[in-house]
Design goal:
The protein has helices at residues 2-14, 160-165; strands at residues 25-29, 32-48, 67-68, 73-74, 79-83, 89-99, 102-112, 132-143, 147-155, 198-205, 212-219, 233-234, 239-249, 254-268, 276-288, 291-301, 325-337, 340-351, 357-369, 374-387, 391-405. The protein has 406 residues and is mainly β. The chain has a single domain (2-405), classed as Beta Barrel (Porin). The strands form two sheets. It has a 16-stranded antiparallel barrel. The chain has a two-stranded antiparallel sheet with strand order 3-4. The model has no long low-confidence stretch (mean pLDDT 89). Residues 12-384 form the Porin domain.
């Protein structure tokens, strides 16, 4: 039962691992420029689930690759699935115009799952339906002098650059619940970075100067999880997120980006304590002609290795109020040869205080642009989680598929 509860909580988080695409088609409607774009992706994935390699009984990040959501158990033997990768399919609508000296825009992005799911969000049977969800709905307004205000539901700032630059964004990375696939895979979530999530927010981005850009905002706070399994309560303040970045392009095939982001929000525990969930990360990427190098590092307090508040393992001790501590890194290298890109991604995350666990992932990938819009993809990943005092879970997967962006 506990494995099923854990798996369902993770499903609720990773079901949102989708990022907007640039609209490919635009047209004029009076003073408005309307845009429509999206993607369709599908992968055939084989995941190795050998009970002899699940020394922690599947109750870890690596073990969740083999979770069977229908039975609440762990699969034994290879599982086969046809489903989405890290991104769901999407249909993204935008509208923008300029009025009274202000640039205005509205965005509504809807995401679709490939695999059928039943009414409880579990793997579906015959005649069941896939999921549909409007995950990004926001407006923006501003100009070159005042910067830009964003209001609505969109991705957070903390952890955004690592996931948007992960080569598995258009692929699979680490699988999740392969015996009955859900909306998405994990990619590198829980291994090298935490999930940025989609949050109701109001933020302001200052005008970009000399390649430097800064954003700060208030975000609807999220519940954490205590060690007794109960959710924390609202701590009486919004979440505060901030980010600063610097982009450069030397014009000779060398360009790059560095960024740093942070978040803080209070939660209230059952014992009356009001601790804070805090996190900070740093990201860097350099492109040198056909070679791309990227890396990130984060530290968190009151959060686990996947996201805020302790989705897999608790963020706070229910008795003492002591916070979990987590940290992780991602290192990635890729090389383009004509229309084909080869990539290697190494990532690791740790929890070091309440529940000591280390998650490691290695992914190798081949991404071939058959056309400007269609990419054929092959990835192989290996995951390992060591849960202190319990054991080690090991899993791996091979995935082949295609991504069509329009």
């Amino acid at each position: 039962m506990r494995k099923k509860q854990i798996a369902l909580m993770v499903a609720a988080i990773v079901a949102a691992s989708s990022l907007s695409t640039v609209s490919a088609a635009t047209w004029q409607a009076g003073d408005w420029e309307l845009g429509l774009g999206g993607n369709v992706n599908t992968f055939y994935t084989v995941t190795q689930c050998d009970s002899g390699d699940l020394g922690a009984n599947g109750g870890t990040m690596a073990g969740l690759a083999c979770a069977d959501l229908d039975t609440g158990t762990v699969a034994d033997g290879n599982t086969h699935s046809v489903s989405n990768g890290l991104l769901p399919a999407s249909l993204n609508f935008s509208a923008k115009t300029k009025q009274n000296g202000y640039d205005l825009s509205g965005n509504v992005n809807v995401y679709y799952g490939m695999a059928s799911q039943d009414t409880n969000g579990l793997a579906g049977d015959a005649l069941d339906f896939s999921t549909v969800d409007a995950r990004q709905v926001y407006l923006t307004f501003g100009n070159d002098k005042m910067g830009t205000v964003k209001a609505g539901r969109d991705f957070g700032l903390f952890g955004f650059d690592p996931i948007i630059n992960d080569m598995s964004l258009i692929g699979n990375g680490a699988t999740f619940a392969s015996a009955g696939p859900g909306h998405t895979t994990l990619g590198g979530l829980g291994y090298g970075y935490v999930y940025t999530d989609r949050l109701a927010q109001i933020n302001w981005t200052a005008p970009k100067k000399g390649g430097v850009e800064a954003t700060v905002g208030v975000f609807n706070p999220l519940d954490g999880v205590e060690s007794n399994g109960s959710s924390t309560r609202d701590g009486g303040q919004p979440g505060i997120h901030g980010k600063v970045s610097y982009d450069w392009d030397k014009g000779n095939g060398v360009k790059g980006r560095v960024s740093a982001s942070a978040l803080s929000q209070k939660v209230q525990l059952a014992n009356g304590d009001k601790p804070s969930i805090n996190g900070a990360d740093i990201f860097a990427k350099v492109d040198i002609n056909n070679t791309s190098l990227a890396g990130s590092y984060y530290q968190g307090k009151g959060m686990d290795t996947l996201g805020l508040g302790g989705i897999i393992f608790p963020g706070f001790d229910s008795t003492t109020g002591e916070a979990e501590k987590s940290k992780g890194y991602m290192a990635q290298a890729s090389y383009k040869m004509g229309n084909t890109k080869l990539g290697l991604n190494l990532s690791q995350s740790k929890q070091t205080n309440l529940t000591k666990v280390k998650n490691d992932k290695v992914t190798v990938g081949v991404y071939h642009n058959l056309t400007d819009s269609l990419t054929l993809i092959g990835e192989a990943s290996s995951q390992k989680s060591n849960l202190d005092g319990v054991g080690t879970d090991k899993t791996g997967s091979v995935a082949v598929g295609a991504m069509l962006s329009f």
